[in-house]
Amino acid sequence: VQLVESGGGLVQPGGSLRLSCAASGFPFRSYRMSWYRQAPGKERELVATITPAGATTVDADSEKGRFIISRDNAKNTVYLQMNSLKPEDTAVYYCKKESFPTYWGQGTQVTVSS
Fold it and tell me: What distance in Å separates the CA atoms of residue 39 and residue 47, rounded to the nearest whole number?
């Protein structure tokens, strides 16, 4: 199983980024996928989840309306569109294959700063 995140980088406050997570080694279309993030000195937290059928949940009130999770089962890829980014969104973002056995990607750094 491999999960490879990409799309992170440095962005100014108010900007947007789209993260991608390319999955391989398991039947991607059958599994719930999630994005998590971990800011310096903080615990890893759930950002958003998407079911195999495409139903989505965005975890925190601060992210609702700004973050959109989606998936393309034909490309074995899950996305996180992040809009109106704030400095407090700075973190390493990870994708995760949910359900046993769970797997994590290596993470991609997102830095929101002017």
Answer: 12
Q: How far is CA 66 from CA 17, 18, 27, 69, 110, in A?
A: 11, 12, 29, 10, 15
Tell whether the model's pLDDT for residue 63 goes beyond 80: no
DSSP state of 30: G
**Closest by Cα among 69, 105, 62, 107 to 85:** 62
DSSP assignments along 72-103, one per residue? ETTTTEEEEEE-S--GGG-EEEEEEE-SSSPE
Residue with tokens 């310096």: 40
Of the candidates 85, 76, 74, the residue with the CA atom closest to the CA atom of residue 105: 76
- The answer on pLDDT for 64 being more than 80 is no
